[in-house]
């Protein structure tokens, strides 16, 4: 594979571009206050998110057909609500489920992406479905050129087909694409397929006591602390 | 189907948003001058485009597997070059084939889309493949939120699956989506599926003597002369 100039950047989104933890927690806390529930929004968010990887596993293993993340999120949300012994009407549940469409970016994300967009194609490479990613982009001002990732491939990262479908649709060799993520495992999966890699440290994605992805665990092509630092390093 | 408020606009692109005829002709004329060919760039462009609909037909009829438009364009280009009794090296042919990635917008397209983007989700609903649409957007400054259309559905308009896959990926009912095109047949196909419709008159898409799509042939929801007029009518 020729070592070619980077033409496109593709991004993990949850945790790398947006702060899902405090965004979900804030909406849950507001809802709890309205409903008179006694619960902690951050804990609720963390529990909900903890069901994310298990919910995708049957699809990745080929044991279940593809279902979009909105649907997996809804199933996990029902589980968490039951655990907390609280309930919501259908419309309220649907609205809360779509909190993942309303996540706030890290402070450096929009300024950094806006600079990077002038020089590169920018696309998502997320497990979020297309409408989730599009609505989030409108909400948060994320300047994607297009949405790639799980729904086009009908599978979930880190399955190779997700990354490779994205490269194929961009008409690029993986060596022309820089996969950007705050998660070492995501970068390793992409590197194994020939993608360039950029790590962005997000030391509070899981809160103040985060015990994974606190450092780059390999010699990724770029290792940075923010989207703006990545733009600096790429001359954007 | 509920008559709901429009949330997203999806666009035909060739002819509706960009002026393929003069864009292709200009590059062909420049190449002809360089090569010493005696030919007319506009005629060449028109002949190349005339092979567009026939090239998609076997896919639409299910007689051939999906191939992306770049590949159909390349096959048609080889035919046209043979007809003109001229030839190109592989790299030159590939570069000329990608002239469809470098089409110039009509003067009102970028200002109109920029206004519309503040109020609506904007996506392509074109037969162009994803990389063609992404590269054209970078070249022409088209502010799409995402690329939909033929490649996600692995088929070509006016097959219903192309429009319906787009609606499904946006998580919207067709009645929440405004299909925008300069071609009456495209709007009819979308209306038949429940989409809202907007006609933009492009009276010189095929040159000064254009003899089709010179007027709205049905009572489309919006009938306009430019993207900016559409933005006016939608309060964007």
From TrEMBL, chains A, B:
One of its GO terms (molecular function) is hydrolase activity, acting on acid halide bonds, in C-halide compounds. It holds the Pfam family Hydrolase. Transmembrane segments: none annotated. The keyword Membrane does not apply. It comes from the Bacteria. Keywords: Hydrolase. PANTHER family: HALOACID DEHALOGENASE, TYPE II (AFU_ORTHOLOGUE AFUA_2G07750)-RELATED, HYDROLASE, HALOACID DELAHOGENASE-RELATED. This is 2-haloacid dehalogenase. It comes from Thalassobaculum litoreum DSM 18839. The lineage of its organism: Bacteria, Pseudomonadati, Pseudomonadota, Alphaproteobacteria, Rhodospirillales.
């Amino acid at each position: 594979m020729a070592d070619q100039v980077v033409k496109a950047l593709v991004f993990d989104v949850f945790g790398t571009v947006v702060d899902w933890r405090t965004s979900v927690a804030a909406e849950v806390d507001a809802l709890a206050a309205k409903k008179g529930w006694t619960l902690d929004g951050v804990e609720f968010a963390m529990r909900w998110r903890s069901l994310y990887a298990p919910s995708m596993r049957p699809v990745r293993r080929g044991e279940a057909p593809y279902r979009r993340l909105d649907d997996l999120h809804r199933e996990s949300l029902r589980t968490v609500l039951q655990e907390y012994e609280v309930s919501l009407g259908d419309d309220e549940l649907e609205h809360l489920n779509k909190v993942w469409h309303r996540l706030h970016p890290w402070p450096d994300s929009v300024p950094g992406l806006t600079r990077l967009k002038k020089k590169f194609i920018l696309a998502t490479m997320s497990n979020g479905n297309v409408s989730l990613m599009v609505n989030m982009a409108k909400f948060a001002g994320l300047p994607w050129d297009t949405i790639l990732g799980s729904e086009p491939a009908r599978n979930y990262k880190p399955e190779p087909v997700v990354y490779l479908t994205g490269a194929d649709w961009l008409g690029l060799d993986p060596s022309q694409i820089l996969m950007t993520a705050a998660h070492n495992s995501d970068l390793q999966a992409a590197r194994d397929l020939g993608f360039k890699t950029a790590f962005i440290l997000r030391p509070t994605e899981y809160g103040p006591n985060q015990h994974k992805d606190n450092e780059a665990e390999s010699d990724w092509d770029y290792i940075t602390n923010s989207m703006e630092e990545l733009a600096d390093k790429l001359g954007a």
